[in-house]
User: Which sequence fits this backbone?
């Protein structure tokens, strides 16, 4: 059973439209401080699972002895943790991969600093109607993430398992338009990543990020019909901040705790292979 600590966390509930998203960020998020400030608690934006759970474990078990005052701020999308960081209402976030961050900077702008990889959440293909990729019907609908980094990652997973082939040279940026061979005539349904497990019944199968799969009660190790390999995987989740805060001693302390033996043990004992340490 996973431990769900509830320590000084702020849950930010986000709606689907951009206007509502902006409103939620300003009304429910932490107050902004002057960019570059190293005063006060370290406010870290996270996805609730597993990132928030891991940080809350640190808050309960490790932070006080290390002299770190930590505030965990939960978000339910992949946009606001970065925009809040740029606006100064966070000092760091912990939810994303390097490919996602690179695409985010291209699409949304901003200046970010990747600090340290912490864990991998293997991307998986899940289904409520079939137990094997061999059972996928002709013309099956496959749910995929609509953000470029995770869309590419999902298509690469399908290609690695011979469900499709992709145009040469698209290893880091594939879209549906780059599908060359599609023997099962798969149709792709792009959705916001958090909606993929919710909409699983509406697809024949969906490629779901590990954190959203776990949050929906799915076991990547037991419930997926395809799962990413961990070896040489570039999609580790890690700590991100701004260039102004890259040398903040609070962030250095957080990284030290996140890559500790205690956190390794917590991950291995609580996520059944759905979260793998990257340190």
Assistant:
């Amino acid at each position: 059973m996973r431990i769900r600590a509830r320590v000084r966390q702020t849950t930010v509930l986000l709606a689907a439209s951009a206007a509502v998203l902006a409103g939620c960020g300003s009304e429910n998020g932490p107050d902004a401080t002057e960019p570059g400030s190293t005063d006060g608690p370290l406010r870290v934006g996270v996805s609730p699972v597993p990132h928030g759970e891991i940080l809350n474990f640190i808050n309960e078990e490790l932070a006080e002895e290390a002299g770190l005052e930590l505030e965990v701020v939960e978000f339910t999308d992949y946009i606001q943790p970065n925009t809040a960081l740029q606006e100064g209402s966070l000092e760091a976030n912990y939810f994303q991969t390097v490919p996602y961050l690179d695409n985010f900077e291209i699409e949304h702008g901003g200046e970010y600093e990747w600090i340290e990889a912490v864990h991998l959440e293997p991307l998986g293909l899940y289904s409520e109607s079939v137990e094997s990729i061999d059972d996928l019907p002709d013309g099956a609908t496959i749910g995929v993430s609509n953000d470029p980094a995770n869309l590419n990652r999902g298509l690469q997973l399908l290609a690695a398992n011979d469900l499709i082939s992709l145009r040469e040279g698209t290893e880091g940026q594939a879209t549906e338009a780059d599908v060359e061979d599609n023997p099962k005539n798969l149709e792709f349904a792009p959705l916001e990543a958090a909606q993929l497990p919710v909409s699983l019944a509406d697809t024949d199968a969906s490629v779901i990020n590990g954190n959203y799969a776990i949050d929906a009660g799915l076991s990547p190790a037991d419930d997926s019909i395809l799962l990413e390999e961990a070896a040489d995987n570039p999609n580790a989740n890690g700590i991100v901040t701004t260039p102004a805060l890259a040398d903040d001693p609070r962030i250095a302390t957080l990284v030290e705790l996140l890559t500790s033996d205690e956190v390794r043990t917590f991950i291995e004992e609580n996520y059944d292979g759905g979260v793998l340490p990257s340190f």
Q: What stands out?
A: Confidence is low (pLDDT under 50) at residues 1-29.
